[in-house]
Design a protein that fits this description.
By secondary structure, the chain is of the alpha/beta class. The chain has two domains: 7-89, Winged helix-like DNA-binding domain superfamily/Winged helix DNA-binding domain (Arc Repressor Mutant, subunit A, Orthogonal Bundle); 101-296, D-Maltodextrin-Binding Protein, domain 2, CATH 3.40.190.290. The chain contains ten helices and eleven strands. The strands form three sheets. Strands 3, 4, 5, 6, 9, 10 and 11 form a seven-stranded mixed sheet that branches. Strands 1-2 form a two-stranded antiparallel ribbon. A hairpin with a 6-residue loop joins strand 1 and strand 2 (63-64). Helix 1 (7-22) crosses helix 2, helix 1 crosses helix 3 and helix 5 crosses helix 10 (283-295). It is rod-shaped and about 120 Å long.
């Protein structure tokens, strides 16, 4: 009986199938490129390995035994499985598999989301079977998730002081200082520094941005990490604060926001693609990063 299946056993099994399909030892010589005696010896070796006869050959001609018929069915099933495995293993060799987790900053411009969508589309056109997860979070939270290796990549405005991260700049976003109807600055076309210093500003807790903000008012009784929270404070008419220009545009068009001393009180925020240096990316993560970078060039 066969224990472990070796390459030699597979060769002998293939020989048996060829002999059966050709209708005998003599007819199989041309197909196998072997002499009749060599075929007979190898068939005898296979029968010895199995412990039973597979076929009879004599004056009455070639005939497969009942056990040989059963084995033939099993052999064909085995070879079909081997061929299926070969196709699947070859397919996996070039296919991207696994998972990609991308963090995205809040309130991104429409053009930025379109570029992310273009990267996803390009990635989906690859030979892949990958689960992509998009997670919206604040920069501090994304940095924490990157450090915990719960994100593979993140797009946001980062401090760029984390030595554990690699940063690649993607684009920049302009921030203006805004006020709303009911605020003293709303009807003031050219507020001076004294008028600005009298304003109660909205504090953004992500500290590194503050050093870039041209307006450094001392009066601050409002605090919000999210853009929507900052907007709510400003719309109250009691506070001024910074918002992305693309986010504020529709509110400006409705006459509900006004930018204060545009240019002088404005600044740009750089957005980067960040990843953890210690996290060795798989092929899927590498390919997705390539597609993201291509979408932003």
């Amino acid at each position: 009986m066969l224990g472990q299946l070796h390459d030699l056993d597979l060769q002998l099994l293939r020989l048996f199938v060829s002999v059966v399909e050709c209708g005998g030892f003599s007819a199989a010589q041309g197909e196998l490129g072997l002499s009749q005696s060599s075929i007979s010896q190898q068939m005898a070796r296979l029968e010895t390995r199995l412990g039973y006869r597979l076929c009879s050959r004599g004056k009455s001609g070639f005939k497969v035994t009942p056990k040989g018929e059963q084995l033939l069915i099993a052999i064909r099933s085995l070879f079909e499985s081997i061929e299926a495995f070969r196709h699947q293993s070859n397919g996996v060799a070039g296919r991207l598999i696994g998972e990609v987790r991308l963090g995205l900053s809040e309130a991104l411009d429409q053009s930025v989301l379109q570029r992310v969508a273009a990267a996803i589309r390009r990635f989906r056109e690859r030979d892949e079977s990958v689960r992509i997860e998009l997670i919206s979070a604040m920069p501090g939270e994304m940095e924490r998730l990157l450090l915990q290796q719960r994100l593979d990549l993140a797009i946001g405005y980062f401090s760029q002081v984390q030595s554990a991260f690699d940063y690649k700049q993607l684009f920049s976003e302009t921030q203006h200082l805004y006020c709303a109807p009911g605020h003293p600055l709303f009807s003031n076309d050219a507020p001076d520094d004294q008028a600005l210093q009298a304003c109660d500003r909205v504090d953004h807790p992500y500290r590194f941005l503050r050093s870039d903000e041209p307006f450094q008012g001392k009066l601050c009784s409002a605090r919000s990490e999210q853009v929507e929270g900052t907007l709510a404070f400003i719309l109250s008419g009691k506070h001024v604060g910074y918002l992305p220009s693309h986010f504020a545009r529709s509110w400006e068009d409705k006459g509900l926001l006004r930018a204060v001393r545009v240019g002088e009180m404005s600044f740009d925020v750089g957005f980067h693609l960040a990843r953890h240096r210690a996290q060795v990316p798989g092929d899927a993560q590498k390919a997705f990063e390539e597609d993201l970078l291509a979408a932003f060039t």
